[in-house]
Amino acid sequence: MWRIGDLSIPGPVVLGPMSGYTFDSYRRFMEPFGADVLVTEMTSCMGIVYGQERTEGYLDFEPTGITGIQLFGCKPDAMAKAAMMALEVNPGISFFDINMGCPVPKVVRNGSGSALMRDPKKCGEIVKAMKNTVDVPITVKMRLGQSSEELNFHDVMDETISAGADVVTIHARTRRERYTGRPHWDMLEGIRREMSVPLVVSGNIYTAEDASHAMDITGAEGVMVARGGVGNPFLLTQIQHMSRGEPIPPNPTLREQTAWCKELTDMVIEDKGFDQGIAKMRSIAPKFISGVQDCREYRRRIAREMKDRESLFRILDDVDADMGDVRIMSYGVTDDADTDL
Q: Which residues are known to be catalytic?
């Protein structure tokens, strides 16, 4: 048990924010597998302030669990105003997470995301402005710094905690590394002992063993599952078992994976409508049959033949009939070394 402000969190799993993925139906699908905390897609503070229709859509959900809005922006007053307006639209928002880690150039160019880390004082000012404006917890998500020559996560961590941040999440890479290479857990060894608030760690969490290693070396209370959970929802269940000291269940079979893919498809279509729902599943569905020998052709079929719900389900039925009893290997491991998200 740990806490985000006054919120009690029963387990370690945080479903990380991912643009294009962690929309409402995806979060609702993932929660029963073991997500203790849910975070929305990255949401523009200025989009909320100016009432942009697309941005307001990120706020339109009925929380079924502890759900936070991840905000990005670079002006303390605007971030605070956006948080206040968001709560007026949806009083069920559990907390706000400040994005100080996104490495995408179009975000960084505006002074948001990981660009904020160049000014630790401003990072603290944003936290303070939001804490003074809304009565829900404020968390921050950062990286190690801009590059291996510019590592200042300690400074940003100190400023944001002093300003009142309730939780700090650290992605163990620099902005320049984006999502490549291995996370630098060695740089975060024992860091929780330096902090007065809970720590969540992020970066390449594809197995329960990855989660255990990251938490053990850092002392973190929570672990953020993002890319590793796309198409592999049972990973959350495995991490929960690991955290309780229980045997880690074996990886699921393709029969289970195809059934879950169908369930998610129907939820996404209901949430997004037919056209947008099918477009979303075109990128997600192949990942349910990733990490299995001899499945490359089925992933190709999804890319070539998936036009609607029925065509996707036919391919999934063929996978089930052909090799339904086969268990997936570790996420991202395939017979032909093709890459996934």
A: 102
